[in-house]
Amino acid sequence: MDVCNETSVAATDSFPAPPSVRQTPSWSRRIQTDYAELTRFWPVVQNMVMQELHVRYQRSFMGFLWTLINPLLMMMILSIVFSNLFPSRENYSVFLLAGIVPWTFMAGSISEATACILVNEGLIRKIYVPKLVFPLVRVLINLVTMVLSLAALFVLLLPLGARPSLPMLLLPVAMGLFVAFTLGLSLLVATTNTFFRDCAHLVSVFLQAWYFATPIIYHLEDFPEPVRWRFWLNPAFYFIEIFHDILCEGRWPQISLMIIATVLATVSLGVGYATFKSNEDKMVFRL
User: Fold this and answer.
1) What are the angstrom distances between the C-alpha of 224 and each of 178, 236, 257?
2) At what angle do helices 235-243 and 255-283 cross, to 10 degrees?
3) Rounded to an integer, what is the distance from CA 178 to the centroid of its chain?
4) Could you please report the per-residue DSSP string of 187-225?
5) What is d(CA 181, CA 179) in angstroms, rounded to the nearest whole number?
6) Cα–Cα distance measured from residue 133 to residue 165, given in angstroms and rounded to the nearest whole number
7) From the CB of residue 23, how many other CB atoms can be counted at a distance below 10 Å?
8) How far are the Cα atoms of 202, 279, 283 from residue 192, in angstroms, in the given order?
9) Roughly how many angstroms between the first and final C-alpha of the chain, as a whole number?
10) Residue 1 pLDDT exceeds 80
11) CB 3.0–4.6 Å: which of 29, 59, 62, 269 could bond 184 by disulfide?
């Protein structure tokens, strides 16, 4: 019995040790790691953004200038059409463009980010690139377009009857909050569409409905007081109102608007990032 016991113990000791349990890093550690990786891969991000912009206009005579000319022409057409449709409204063209420019950025970023993981399947399988890069690139491409569109809008301010004002200094803050809000939603839809391919079709329909539910082509004052509270349920309402206040009204946004926008941007980015990182390792199996 002793010999058998000794043999059993010896045999047991010769077995390989069980694999150690991989501890999930804390969220603060994940954020630090992703920040370091994005910093290391920042030249890749820049190259992907510039390459996408170059491909869009590579065979055109005006080239990259179309990124400025295109929004300028579109704004001129919209201002002429809607000014004739609503001639009684003062500075309606500025009001319209101040809402359409940020909305186009958000809608474009979310639409393009929906399939960004699937479209880059070949690159993901071949080399290591942080998957956060792909939705971030889509947001940055549309951010470049929004910045140029705002530059075109400033060119049109004086002809449309608006004047530059001191509250426009707050525009970078408003843009930063809106970019964070949009990036969070982009991460969320990119994750969802990787596992549920029908998400892309639902997103396009949802964005159309969301557009008409946001005061972009109409004023909040067009509705009676008892029903205006419904717009408060729309998270995009607060950001669009901030742009309207700065660009159209030439006044400082209300403190409450800025606080709510900050909370919405933080929650959106936090939820989007947490959802993306929680499912990041599973994405490759669904490509």
Assistant:
1) 28, 20, 21
2) 130
3) 8
4) HHHHHHHHH-TTHHHHHHHHHHHHHHTSTTSS-GGGS-G
5) 5
6) 36
7) 6
8) 11, 9, 10
9) 56
10) no
11) 269
**Phi/psi-derived region of residue 63, left when phi > 0, alpha when psi is between -120 and 50, beta in every other case:** left
Which element (helix H / strand E) includes 70? helix 66-85
What percentage of the chain carries pLDDT values higher than 90?
47
Per the CB < 8 A criterion, the answer to whether 39 and 130 are in contact is no
Cβ 71 vs Cβ 145: under 8 Å:
yes
- Map tokens 């390459």 to a residue: 51
Percent of all residues in the chain with a pLDDT value above 70, rounded to a whole number:
82
Distance between CA atoms of 138 and 275, rounded to whole angstroms? 18
User: What digits encode the pLDDT tens for the residues 139-155?
Assistant: 999 999 899 888 878 87
92-114 and 66-85 are packed helices; what angle lies between their axes, rounded to 10 degrees?
A: 130
Amino acid at 272: G
DSSP at 231: G
Residue type, 162: A
The Cα 46–Cα 41 span in angstroms is 9
List C-alpha distances in Å: 37 to 31, 118, 133, 231. 10, 21, 10, 39
84 CB neighbour count, 10 Å cutoff: 8
Is the pLDDT at 20 greater than 70? The verdict is: no
Residues 93, 214, 146: CA angle, nearest 5 degrees: 60
CA distance 100 to 217: 8
pTM for the model: 0.84
The encoded tokens of residue 264 equal 């919405």
